[in-house]
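Table S2 (text version). Query chain:
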Amino acid sequence: MVGCLVISHGTVAQAVVEASQRIAGVCEQVFTLSSDDVSPKQLHSNIIQLTESKSLHDGLIILVSLRGGSFWNAATRIAREYDNVKVISGLNLSMLLAFITKKDKLSFDELAKVMVADSIRGITSFRP
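Corresponding structure-token output:
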């Protein structure tokens, strides 16, 4: 199975997952990590532990809020070590909903591409 790890400051990751559950129902294989009371070393260790989980043999997609931030740095370091890890920045609800609704239909590589496309498509500006 493919898993998705949502990492953020405070309770943002948990809130995005809860919102997606209200829309799409149960979110299997979706995990969260927060920076609260976690050192960079512990964050790295937690991500490695999840990456090596036998239930995620098809891969792990890590969603972070900001490219270049501490979560991005930790996640991309791990992605360089593991072929079955991808990192996507710009965490938003459209991105996570794409994972939930398409993870069983697409390959690991295609899923990551579609998640990026869907997250961008969800960003727009409106002026009547």
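Notes on Table S2: The longest helix spans residues 108-121. The mean pLDDT is 92.
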